[in-house]
Amino acid sequence: MNRIPVTVLGATGVVGQRFVRRLRNHPMFEVVGIAASDRSAGKRYRDACEWRLDGEPYAGLGDQVLAPSDPAEAFSPIVFSALDNAPAKEIEPAFARAGAHVFSNAASFRMDPDVPLLVPEVNPGHLALLETQRRRRDWKGSILTNPNCTTTVLVMALAPLHEAFGVETVIMTSMQAVSGAGYPGVPSLDIMGNILPHIGGEEGKVEVETGRLLGKVVDGLAVSDPMAVSALCYRAPVMDGHTESVSVRLKGNPTPDQVREVLAAWKPLPQRLGLPSAPEVPIRLHTAENRPQVRRDVELDGGMSVHVGRIRPCNVLGIKFALLGHNTERGAAGGSVLNAELAVSQGLVS
Ligand SMILES: NC(=O)C1=CN([C@@H]2O[C@H](COP(=O)(O)OP(=O)(O)OC[C@H]3O[C@@H](n4cnc5c(N)ncnc54)[C@H](OP(=O)(O)O)[C@@H]3O)[C@@H](O)[C@H]2O)C=CC1
Ligand SMILES: N[C@@H](CC(=O)OP(=O)(O)O)C(=O)O
Question: Start and end of every Semialdehyde dehydrogenase NAD-binding domain (predicted)?
Fold first, then answer.
């Protein structure tokens, strides 16, 4: 297969660098363009930003010159966007109008009812919104988004339970990595040896995006599931990996063993298709009492699987468990790349 040329917008940022590293040697996509703000455009990648990841610095593209984030200068048929929300609002539609298929991490268009908010294992059927989007908007291309990172990890565990039993109520408390706040993010003197009980906008996003992802497409538009979701989000002194403490009320009150069986048997579409970024096992189940742990588990499967452990009865909602996932891989760059792989495999973009 000829690789599809792609551009990474926001290539200098925390998520943008992960895109560039992940797309290096990708079987379906080839990075031909990297772009960022006007502050960085015209500079070589290595001069515009410091490389903050392990592995080969700048993923071998250190001498490539950054383009401005303008479709006239950085067009590719597929564009991965790691832009901040405010610039994403203007720049992503400009690329979509020019005919690019934009796979975005930003929150700007997530809740629009004709924009797929997608986790390929969870709601691949929401790709159908692209048809409505094309009809409604004057775009030759499209915008397709991935959720907030905390939400992504949560819906990976809830989706098979919703399918098997039906989710009625969820209470989720997160302990979120500092990388979620970008670079330099939270000052070290605030987070070292500390827990911060507020992440701006995060709880509201988890509460609305969860029902949207587990909802349906009706008459070509997204309709959220009415489940009740309450989120409490905390910043914790870890680098990468959001831990979530989840209590859930499921229809029919299944036992922990029944829940475990459903999670273990889950083989959703990306795994059946063998998409390159899909982890072979989407949910890693842990039986040891002190797992999952961020330091020991989160990098497994390139950060693309989520981890569930300590499944047990909850006196209030019925079932509770510990959940862990990689916020900047599964929750950001990796999730977006998997979205693009699914869209290409379904013949929706090329
Ligand atoms: N960090 C995470 O865990 C997650 C982040 N996201 C989302 O991904 C996006 C990127 O986050 P993150 O990488 O942490 O952010 P960073 O602040 O690290 O990077 C932001 C990027 O956007 C570019 N940018 C800023 N302003 C403009 C502009 N006016 N025009 C063009 N480019 C611009 C920056 O370029 P320059 O260097 O030139 O300023 C930089 O490349 C955000 O929308 C975030 O909400 C989503 C899920 C998880
Ligand atoms: N707010 C998340 C990261 C993030 O950028 O989320 P969103 O994509 O919804 O803006 C965190 O701090 O961990």
Answer: 5-130
Nearest-CA residue for atom 1 of ligand 1: 180
161 with 216, same domain: the answer is yes
Structural contact between residues 123 and 146, judged by C-beta atoms closer than 8 angstroms: no
Angle (deg, nearest 10), helices 149-164 and 202-213: 30
Q: Which of 101, 126, 162, 242 is catalytic?
A: 242
Report whether residue 7 contacts ligand 1, using a CB cutoff of 6 Å.
no
Q: Comparing C-alpha atoms, which of 147, 325, 167, 156 is closest to residue 247?
A: 167
For the record, the structure tokens of 202 come out as 């995060």
Q: Please give the number of the atom of ligand 2 that sits closest to the Cα of 201.
A: 1
The packing angle between helices 149-164 and 256-265, to 10°, is 110
CA 83 to the chain's CA centroid: 14
Domains in the chain, number: 2
**Averaged pLDDT, 18-47:** 97
Please give the distance, rounded to the nearest whole angstrom, from the Cα atom of residue 231 to the centre of ligand 1. 24
Residue among 101, 149, 162, 326 flagged as catalytic: 149
**Predicted TM-score of the model (pTM):** 0.97
In tens, the pLDDT along 208-248 reads 999 999 999 999 999 999 999 999 999 999 999 999 999 99
- Ligand 1 neighbourhood includes 35 CB (under 6 angstroms): no
